[in-house]
């Protein structure tokens, strides 16, 4: 199993990135926070979780071990797969998620796209004892990919991929770009996620 990657970043997309190690390019899905830490053409290290299914092998990358551990912990909930776990970590940090789960904050967890009341309640029941290991420290990702946003269609597409409705995603991206026209793509995606999380 692949547990980590160290190599040159050869591509950064809205939903993931490619790191070349020993002449092989590995694509992994990641949150905006992790992608914001990467720079094309520079060496990077990412923690990796690998999922193997009958029809696919997928890699998920994280800039810190805490996020990787939370990603695996979340999937201990019945019906909560990698896509939902990644969406949760795109919305909240590992320590925030741990706090919401341990305090029984159902409404906060329901803000994660694809998480309804029943799933949120199941997360609390199943994970309350398991999230105590997550420290209160919150890693703050400095997100800055120097690529200004033109139209934002690809950002809307990334939000839809995380489970948001297209009209809501489009409205959030338009709102962020109207307020911050010079935002880069990662910042716009992050700000749109914050806006959608309030609704």
UniProtKB/TrEMBL annotation:
One of its GO terms (biological process) is DNA recombination. It comes from Corynebacterium hindlerae. Belongs to the RuvA family. The keyword Cytoplasm applies. InterPro entries: DNA_helicase_Holl-junc_RuvA_I, Hlx-hairpin-Hlx_DNA-bd_motif, NA-bd_OB-fold, RuvA, RuvA_2-like, RuvA_C, RuvA_C_sf. GO terms for cellular component: cytoplasm; Holliday junction helicase complex; Holliday junction resolvase complex. Homotetramer. Forms an RuvA(8)-RuvB(12)-Holliday junction (HJ) complex. HJ DNA is sandwiched between 2 RuvA tetramers; dsDNA enters through RuvA and exits via RuvB. An RuvB hexamer assembles on each DNA strand where it exits the tetramer. Each RuvB hexamer is contacted by two RuvA subunits (via domain III) on 2 adjacent RuvB subunits; this complex drives branch migration. In the full resolvosome a probable DNA-RuvA(4)-RuvB(12)-RuvC(2) complex forms which resolves the HJ. Residues 154-199 are annotated as: Domain III. Has three domains with a flexible linker between the domains II and III and assumes an 'L' shape. Domain III is highly mobile and contacts RuvB. This is Holliday junction branch migration complex subunit RuvA. It comes from the Bacteria. Keywords: Cytoplasm, DNA damage, DNA recombination, DNA repair, DNA-binding. The gene is ruvA. The keyword Protein biosynthesis does not apply. CDD domains: UBA_RuvA_C (cd14332). It is found in: Cytoplasm. Residues 72-91, 107-126 form the Helix-hairpin-helix DNA-binding motif class domain. The RuvA-RuvB-RuvC complex processes Holliday junction (HJ) DNA during genetic recombination and DNA repair, while the RuvA-RuvB complex plays an important role in the rescue of blocked DNA replication forks via replication fork reversal (RFR). RuvA specifically binds to HJ cruciform DNA, conferring on it an open structure. The RuvB hexamer acts as an ATP-dependent pump, pulling dsDNA into and through the RuvAB complex. HJ branch migration allows RuvC to scan DNA until it finds its consensus sequence, where it cleaves and resolves the cruciform DNA. GO terms for molecular function: ATP binding; four-way junction DNA binding; four-way junction helicase activity.
């Amino acid at each position: 199993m692949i547990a980590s990657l160290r190599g040159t970043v050869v591509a950064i997309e809205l939903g993931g990135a490619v790191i070349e190690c020993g002449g092989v390019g590995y694509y992994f899905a990641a949150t905006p926070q992790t992608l914001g830490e990467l720079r094309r053409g520079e060496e990077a290290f990412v923690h990796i979780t690998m999922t193997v299914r009958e029809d696919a092998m997928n890699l998920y990358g994280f800039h810190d071990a805490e996020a990787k551990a939370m990603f695996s912990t979340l999937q201990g909930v019945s019906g909560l797969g990698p896509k939902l776990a990644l969406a949760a970590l795109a919305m909240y940090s590992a320590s925030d998620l741990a706090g919401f789960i341990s305090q029984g904050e159902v409404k906060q967890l329901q803000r994660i796209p694809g998480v309804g009341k029943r799933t949120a309640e199941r997360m609390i029941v199943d994970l309350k004892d398991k999230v105590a290991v997550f420290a209160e420290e919150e890693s703050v990702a400095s997100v800055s990919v120097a690529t200004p946003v033109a139209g934002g269609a690809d950002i809307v597409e990334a939000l839809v991929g995380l489970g948001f409705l297209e009209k809501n995603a489009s409205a959030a991206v338009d709102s962020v770009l109207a307020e911050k026209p010079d935002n880069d793509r990662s910042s716009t995606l992050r700000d749109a996620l914050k806006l959608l999380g309030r609704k």
